Amino acid sequence: MAGLRAKNKADRHQRIVEAAARLFRTQGYDTVKMEAIAAAAEVSIGTIYNYYKNKGDLLVAIVSMEVHEVLAAGERVIADPPRHAEKAVAKLIANYIEHALVYLSKEMWRQAMAITTQQPDSPSGVAYNELDEALARQTAKLIRKLQTLGLMQVGVDAQAIGEMIFNNTNMMFTIFVKQEAMSVATLLARIRRQNRTLVQAIAA
Questions:
Q1: What is the CATH number of the domain that holds 79?
Q2: Rounded to 5 degrees, what are φ and ψ at 57?
Q3: What is the pLDDT of residues 168-187, one digit of tens each?
Q4: How many whole angstroms separate alpha carbon 59 and alpha carbon 69?
Q5: Which end of the chain is more exposed for a tag (fewer CB within 10 A), N or C?
Q6: Measuring CA to CA, which residue among 164, 174, 199 is closest to residue 91?
Q7: Coil, strand or helix: which one is 2?
């Protein structure tokens, strides 16, 4: 019985997050009301408020869903990376960037960034920062894997390099979401160019 209750709870949570993501993308974050999300998810408004205090919390939950899928895909890259340092880093970063607009539009990302910047100590702000830290750790994990494969110098600080690569990616992604006209292809090309010098300098 407990297992069934947990499954039903997880199903409701998934329906709510997916409904919110769909409505935010198609109608705009500011326009959508919590009542509309409840109707689309086929749950009561009270059920939504059992999970989330406001739309901001729900938006960060969508970010969390997106990032956890990206992290899972990133682990597959690390398990079997391209046998070339620059290509391996580019593949992991492309995985991050290309998935970023699956659930969220640029407008939704701007809203999420604004919420977590204005309220850094709120549960949403803390959760958002933890997701960034998880992605930075995964980038560093790739660097360590490349070291074990003999593709990067063993003496370099893998954690520091991973953080540098991710932090730059994060900064470029922020510029990307601010500029509606910038394409994913343009963003990836710029990040690859920026990473190339660093990766070539520490490649084995």
A1: 1.10.357.10
A2: -60, -40
A3: 999 999 999 999 999 999 99
A4: 16
A5: N
A6: 199
A7: helix
pLDDT at residue number 6? 62
Rounded to the nearest 5°, which phi and psi values hold at 42?
A: 60, 45
Q: Please give the C-alpha separations between residue 169 and each of 51, 75, 95, in angstroms, as whole numbers.
A: 31, 18, 12
Question: How many whole angstroms separate alpha carbon 13 and alpha carbon 9?
Answer: 6
29 phi/psi in degrees, rounded to 5: -60, -45
Task: Say whether both 124 and 60 belong to one domain.
Answer: yes
Q: How far apart are the first and last CA of the chain?
A: 56
Q: pTM of this prediction?
A: 0.90
8 Å CB contact between 164 and 89: no
- Gap between the Cα atoms of 159 and 141, Å rounded: 8
Instruction: Characterise 150 by phi-psi region: left (phi > 0), alpha (psi -120 to 50), beta (else).
Output: left
Q: Is pLDDT at 69 greater than 90 in this prediction?
A: yes
Query: Does residue 188 sit in the same domain as residue 152?
Result: yes
Q: What pLDDT score does 20 carry?
A: 94
Structural domains in the chain (count): 2
Q: Are residues 160 and 108 in the same domain?
A: yes
The whole domain housing 17 covers 1-51
Q: Same structural domain for residues 99 and 182?
A: yes
Residue 163 CA to residue 160 CA, distance in Å, equals 5
Measure the CA–CA gap between 163 and 140, rounded to whole angstroms: 7
**One domain, residues 87 and 154:** yes
Dihedral angle of Cα 184, 187, 190, 196, to the nearest 10 degrees: -70
